[in-house]
Input
Amino acid sequence: MVETADLWLGMQVQDLRKTNGLSLQQLAERSGLSIGLLSQIERGLTSPSIRSLRQISEALGVTPASFFLEETPPPPEELGKIVRRNKGRQLQLPSNGVAKWLLTPDLSGNLEMLFVEIQPGGNSGTELYTHKGEECGYVICGAMRLWVENQLFTLHEGDSFRFRSTTPHRFENGADVVTHVLWIITPPFY
Output
């Protein structure tokens, strides 16, 4: 019988592997573990030993503690389908004044949805960047300056956007208050 905690752990390993752009083969090479064992861990079919978890953590650049829940995992029927309020995983970029919460259950699908909070003065960096895919979003509150190539757009509450992620882009808060944006990216990027 598959344990919910093992499924949850496996999803976290798979998400981190994909976020790092690694195949199972590459993770196996980095961790010194077999592809078969890693596949079983990702599918929740086996629990990793402490040693294996440490090897996986080192290969993915995280601490083993990041795989332990502070609370009980979601019910098995919700895994991979539902994210409850205040349960999304957070990516904090404190030096840039930007915090992102993953609102999709994992990164295994074709898209990811993020809740983005941009502090006054916060930004994605001063350089334009690109990645594969497409993204769109909706400004919930505040204002955001969005550069797509050499064009600057100022978006306010209720405005939305869409562009190919291969187009150089960047963003920053365009207000003196915190700005919230619902952001969707395909394929998953973080």
Q: What stands out?
A: The domain at 4-78 is CATH 1.10.260.40 (434 Repressor (Amino-terminal Domain)).
